[in-house]
Amino acid sequence: MTEPFDATEVIAAKRDMQRLSDPQIDWVVDAFTRGVVAPEQMSALAMAILLNGMDREEISRWTAAMIASGERMDFSSLSRPTSDKHSTGGVGDKITLPLAPLVAACGVAVPQLSGRGLGHTGGTLDKLEAIPGWRADLSNAEIMAQLEDVGAVICAAGAGLAPADKKLYALRDVAGTVEAIPLIASSIMSKKIAEGTGSLVLDVKVGSGAFMKRHEQARELAETMVALGTDAGVRTVALLTDMSTPLGLTAGNAVEAGGGPRDVVDLTIALAREMVAGAGRPDVDPAEALADGRAMDVWRRMIAAQGGDPDAPLPTPKETHVVTAQADGVLTRLDALAVGVAAWRLGAGRSRPGEQVQAAAGVVLHAKPGDTVRAGQPLLELHTDTPERFARAEAALEGAFDIGAAAPDLPASVVLDRVD
Amino acid sequence: MTEPFDATEVIAAKRDMQRLSDPQIDWVVDAFTRGVVAPEQMSALAMAILLNGMDREEISRWTAAMIASGERMDFSSLSRPTSDKHSTGGVGDKITLPLAPLVAACGVAVPQLSGRGLGHTGGTLDKLEAIPGWRADLSNAEIMAQLEDVGAVICAAGAGLAPADKKLYALRDVAGTVEAIPLIASSIMSKKIAEGTGSLVLDVKVGSGAFMKRHEQARELAETMVALGTDAGVRTVALLTDMSTPLGLTAGNAVEAGGGPRDVVDLTIALAREMVAGAGRPDVDPAEALADGRAMDVWRRMIAAQGGDPDAPLPTPKETHVVTAQADGVLTRLDALAVGVAAWRLGAGRSRPGEQVQAAAGVVLHAKPGDTVRAGQPLLELHTDTPERFARAEAALEGAFDIGAAAPDLPASVVLDRVD
């Protein structure tokens, strides 16, 4: 026996509602990374954590163990402060694309190291890879150079950052254990702390299209993550934002890379203000940098620096199919989850790690909640390269929207709450 | 999509406390057997079942799905009725060895198809393999011939019976999900129903050395299994029996193959009476067959029929170590679990499927609860071939027994309760 614990005793402890000790947590995360704890053991432990919970100290230790499983980056040699944003994932969430160049245009460097999308919430990298030539994989030296030169980089997180999390995330995804606050919080924060950003803004989505369906859950997740970041010396703020209906007018990959409807612009500016303030520049106003075109300049330079052609036409889908309104009235509800699942089934998302996604697949919204519609008018446009997918996408949209007589009670702002 | 379900949706249903539907259960058990549902998915589902439970109908369907994963045997062509016994596992449980020949001597055929021991409760096959020459693997034709000729067979269950259970059991064992009533009940009953016995007696152990520590738990397990057997047309009865202290005077493999202390004889006769009655011969008295030597004759023929030499000396351990009483008084408690773990650490049990066990390893008891002891007198004798194991075995025995002034309050009989 060279190992200090046996996996079954750690699993049994959490199964039986005990606290895991610091040595148990350190060992189980490390042994899982080394392959000594088998996937079927970690997945039973993850389910026990999901159902029986972990307290703040266990979560903090678990996060530290995941950070310790890999390397840490250091941006302290850059000439400007750093700030990063993380979204817990939602339907139509393309905010990173305008946000990173906008914040860079305000003099704050944005090291946005992202993962691949899984499930119904598309990934930022998938959206950018819809731009011909653009590449997601950069070396650490390339990241540093681009941050100094352009000020913003959106790229794939290297395998060296929190490898325990990478392995655990893939496992949770196939084993029904994504929706656990301790595991979500430690997963996100281990990567962001290891990434080395000086400050961090968390966009915690709430509603049917998000992992967190209810406000209290989302607030608990936000508080947990803010505490983890603060304890690790990263200035961390969280905004709770509405995800009951898709953000913007598109859900998918290529279809989301452009455009700027009201809710997207509002959220982008709200997040940018937090990032700029967190990086110590509360005097700078992102709204100006967006209006005067500086943000767009940085966007073009950022895409070009990674081999992408900012002027290339986006891929177009081979097939489209229109869903129309069946009555006159006001669109009172358009469910985010249903639209996300439809986009996923059309080919925008993957069901297994490594699976190819269709760059042109997705859903375009022709109306948003509160809009007046007429019977026969297009509500949604489905895009795919593989038309046999339309039937299952349409099935996902059954009951996804309501048309009524009176205007619905919508949130005054996409930002619902703030945690710092 | 050729599969009707995705594993994650089945896992999520049980995780979120929903009932699993019949098609979900049929699919997940079959897909796991085929390798379409991965071990890390089934292990998350097993943990969700452990923590959130299954109702009687779910358990019944799960059992049927495991039976359907393999072949079923049929003993209806035999000239005598069949009855089998299953024990949920306890420390020092060698009851099968005298019981099978005893029941056969009463005119009832006993097809005892067993699994390998795991954890602290040794397996029947491991005990018999301590007899030189004896072999556990018989063909179906050999089993039929021996049942007709000798009347009793104890052998390894073939790979064809409930292969889903075999695969699931190995997984539960390494992933901390053994202790779930729905999974224990369906595992035991799927094998016994597939085995084809006409009647069945369940020996459900209660106490520190058993999976079920408390009477109510054990009774729930017993009721669940009796219902499953009865619904499948197998006449099924359960006895709840005491496992707070080891049964008999030995725990291990070779050390248990002989001997007949009071508690062992009482339990053997109680179980034999139930088996004989279940097979429709309530008029036959097993106590007579034990006393007049007929049971011993069948034992010798049964061992010889499987290549074993009933007269061969049993293997002896290379090393022994004695644990003595530290005071005068009455032994008030001798913990079954601690003795079982000690025997396991001495080499009597395996921690991974397929691991070799030591035939001579185990623990011999020199006193049982209620016995008067003197300081310095031997209490326990530890046997092993590998003396470096003594330290960890002794550690397991720390606090395992109490010596007091007054006689302890012991159960009047090893049989505590009966469920039919």
The averaged pLDDT of chain A comes out at: 91
Strand order of the largest sheet of chain A: 1-4-5-13
What are the segments of chain A in which pLDDT stays under 50 over at least 5 consecutive residues? Answer: none
| Helix-and-strand structural type of chain A | alpha/beta
* Major sheet of chain A: 4 strands, mixed
Q: How many E-type strands of chain A?
A: 13
Strand % of chain A is: 15-25%
Name of the CATH class of the domain at 83-157 and 195-305 in chain A:
Alpha Beta
Q: Using the coordinates shown, work out and report the CATH topology of the domain at 83-157 and 195-305 in chain A.
A: Pyrimidine Nucleoside Phosphorylase, Chain A, domain 2
Compute the separation of the termini of chain A in Å. Answer: 45 Å
User: Biggest interface: chains and residue counts?
Assistant: A-B, 28 and 29 residues
What is the count of DSSP helices of chain A, taking H or I runs of 4+ residues? 15
Helix content of chain A: 40-55%
Order of helices and strands of chain A: HHHHEHEHHEHHEHEEHHHEEHEEEHEE
Oligomeric category: homodimer
